[in-house]
Amino acid sequence: MLKNRDIISILDFTKEEISYVLELSKRMERESSADMLKGKILANLFFEPSTRTRLSFETAMKRLGGDVIGFDDPDKTSTVKGESLKDSVKIIEGYCDIIVLRHFLEGASRLTADTVNVPVINAGDGASQHPTQTFLDLYTIKNTKGRLEGLSVGFLGDLKYGRTAHSLAYALAHFNSEMYFISPPSLRIPKDYIEQLQLRGVSYYEIDSLFEVSGKLDILYCTRIQKERFADPVEYEKVRGVYKLSRVVLDKLKIGNDLKILHPLPRVEEMDESLDTTEYAVYFQQAHSGVPVRKALLAAVLGVFQ
Amino acid sequence: MLKNRDIISILDFTKEEISYVLELSKRMERESSADMLKGKILANLFFEPSTRTRLSFETAMKRLGGDVIGFDDPDKTSTVKGESLKDSVKIIEGYCDIIVLRHFLEGASRLTADTVNVPVINAGDGASQHPTQTFLDLYTIKNTKGRLEGLSVGFLGDLKYGRTAHSLAYALAHFNSEMYFISPPSLRIPKDYIEQLQLRGVSYYEIDSLFEVSGKLDILYCTRIQKERFADPVEYEKVRGVYKLSRVVLDKLKIGNDLKILHPLPRVEEMDESLDTTEYAVYFQQAHSGVPVRKALLAAVLGVFQ
Amino acid sequence: MLKNRDIISILDFTKEEISYVLELSKRMERESSADMLKGKILANLFFEPSTRTRLSFETAMKRLGGDVIGFDDPDKTSTVKGESLKDSVKIIEGYCDIIVLRHFLEGASRLTADTVNVPVINAGDGASQHPTQTFLDLYTIKNTKGRLEGLSVGFLGDLKYGRTAHSLAYALAHFNSEMYFISPPSLRIPKDYIEQLQLRGVSYYEIDSLFEVSGKLDILYCTRIQKERFADPVEYEKVRGVYKLSRVVLDKLKIGNDLKILHPLPRVEEMDESLDTTEYAVYFQQAHSGVPVRKALLAAVLGVFQ
């Protein structure tokens, strides 16, 4: 279904395609697939470092029998000699069967996909899209709740800059989610996104405190509040306490046992280690889902499933 | 024919050996070779970054079923602790079957080849030799013109420092080329090289402007004019216009349809994107030739063809 | 015998286990093992660069048919965003079958082993342990002398900070070695280590000059004297001459023909190139032993030998 497709934005995917990717991901965990991509080469082009994403793409490709070339330091590429991104990727497409691109500029993945003949997977470009993260978020939700349909999902933290939250909200709009955007007023989700969700008929609420809704949530998707984004440190100090999740805080919240907490990681101080051993925590499981989800996407795009 | 040979300089190769490498390269594009080097390990030792060269060697090795280890940042090697190049390569030869070396010092490849027992391929040392680049330049010319014998070849740009132009000229001296060295007076090809070409009976011309010869050329080999090399910016400004190739300039030149333009890349401003879609442009094809040519050299040196 | 064991410190190994690892290492040189670890992935996590160790682990894994992911530059990991080592390794364990860790902090490997479910091999943490180096030192001694039992072993140079010397001394305590610690007074082996050796009943001598014992030694284990460790440059100048080994110095020492000289490398000026071609020098052979020894450990820990 996805043969030769570029994976640029979660917005390019229909509900059926999303469900198909999640099913393939499940198959990837169950079935042997050791030689599926034998002889294929993935070029991991990281113009911005992201060890986690890079390594999980590498593992996914190698678990399928393929191999990987690439770089994670643009300072050592011809970019420093003034070469354009277009030239770089036109050359490298001659060395590989598929390109995975991480770039600091928004739109770099689309430009690359328009330039080369091999499929391109966006591994994050600028503040905009990181679709494989969204797929693995969805996969984790489905695995832990048994379904995607009709869930109550809270998004917590930096909803202004957090691209993973934006993309996940868009994707969940296909699945009749009720959404709670929990953030300090200064970090509210941007109006553009809200308008898109309204167009899709999503029920949503913008609130300040987790306490107001904690009993209603099936999923809580946490994000890191980036201190450096606050112009006024006093503002930061006002809110950071509310969003420091710990076992003690959860006890006070009187949440149901079925709540599952996700976080794209890395976390810093917004989520305490004491949570890790509770039944709520699924963020490490979420991180590990990067491998089956990326295996599914690589295999599909490279035409293994006709 | 080349089993266990070190590939240090194009000057070490006879006309027969060059032709043999080009034939093998062709075979590498046609024939399956997926397990030719299974179990072999290449050490990619890049004491100076060169992403393009590094990645195409990696792809070549992996396409043949071999594997690769290495580094591309000398700051993280024992060199910073004061270790000599000789010690470094004597240790690493114990980890691999073949060494590919990029080094900032002229002669580093020859020294390495004299030190270790595994074959060594020079991937560029200092301003002197980069033989695999020359092989892929020759391969591209042969592929696009159908022959190497008796061509009229223009070399354009920085002929003083451009090692790729020097090496290609030497190699083409085997094949009765007529050579046109087109550069501003300040970037003329060094006397030493000219004397060598004279000794080999090459017909050559040193000129300032592409306009004088554009109708006569089969091949135009462009190089990047490195602005920083000009002591006087006024001198640079005088010449840069002449060497900025574009579709418009080519139209004015009234060149024949059979002209093919090569460039070792990266390009900066000496060659406009408008050229890319013309039938003259073969520089991306040239870059992609790095893979079959390096596959041929790796397989030959590692004894696949007895 | 070692299935799923973490390899953290040479002190964790019994005499029988050490002998077992050395026998396996020998087998790894003799027997074909090309697909032993097919489908397995090693994560090479180098939070501190060490090219030699990294590359020999990579070669070992690839020679066994496995594959490798990893990094060698902590500045490009989530560590710079404030992520803890525990979080980093908990995520990465989901991508691999075994972790090899190099870290600048003492105890990092033990912490990692306690955190993850995959086996962990310590590739050097802080100034403390580097057990695979000790295994390859022992392997080299056994290969060159035919036995480990009852040897006279001199340790020369920086015995205060040289962790490789400390670990080797501990390991040789199992094998009735007589030990000579040869160093300037300012670089004597720390009291703690001496006490441990006394507890194990080791005969040892602390001396200043190699001349006193040169005729008695089977093995001389040299280490690099790190100039920067001396507060007073005059002190450094006093001793550096004594420890500059060369062919001329060895002739004066009237050593026996059976002496073998080891050095963990890199060397700087403490050992002259003139030694390299003598029958005493086994330090390059020692460096190359990193591959069979690491193959043995990887295969054993990953359960190839039940």
Secondary-structure blueprint:
3 copies of one chain form a homotrimer.
Chain A: H1 15-30, E1 41-46, H2 51-63, E2 67-71, H3 85-92, E3 98-103, H4 108-115, E4 120-125, H5 131-145, E5 152-156, H6 163-172, E6 178-182, H7 191-199, E7 203-207, E8 219-222, H8 233-240, H9 247-253, E9 260-262, H10 283-288, H11 290-301
Parallel strand pairs in A: 1-2, 1-3, 3-4, 5-6, 5-8, 6-7, 8-9
Summarize the structure.
The first copy, chain A, is of the alpha/beta class and 306 residues long.
Instruction: Give the strand line-up of the largest sheet of chain A.
Output: 7-6-5-8-9
The topology string of helices and strands of chain A comes to HEHEHEHEHEHEHEEHHEHH
Average pLDDT metric of chain A: 92
For the record, what CATH class of the largest domain in chain A applies?
Answer: Alpha Beta
Q: Strand pairing plus helix content of chain A: what structural class?
A: alpha/beta
Task: Name the biggest interface.
Answer: B-C, 25 and 22 residues
Task: Give start-end ranges of low-pLDDT stretches of chain A.
Answer: none
Instruction: State the CATH architecture of the largest domain in chain A.
Output: 3-Layer(aba) Sandwich
Beta strands of chain A, count: 9
Can you walk me through this structure?
3 copies of one chain form a homotrimer. Chain A has 306 residues and is α/β, with parallel strands linked by helices. Chain A folds into 2 domains: 10-130 and 290-301, Rossmann fold (3-Layer(aba) Sandwich); 132-287, Rossmann fold. Chain A is 37% helix and 15% strand. The first copy, chain A, has helices at residues 15-30, 51-63, 85-92, 108-115, 131-145, 163-172, 191-199, 233-240, 247-253, 283-288, 290-301, and strands at residues 41-46, 67-71, 98-103, 120-125, 152-156, 178-182, 203-207, 219-222, 260-262. In chain A, helix 7 links the parallel strand 6 (178-182) and strand 7 (203-207). In chain A, helix 1 packs across helix 5. Chain A is globular, with a radius of gyration of 20 Å. The B-C interface holds B 38-39, 41, 43, 67, 69-71, 73, 75-78, 81-83, 86-88, 90-92, 94-96 and C 34, 49, 51-52, 55-56, 58-59, 62-63, 72-73, 265-268, 273, 284, 287-288, 290-291.
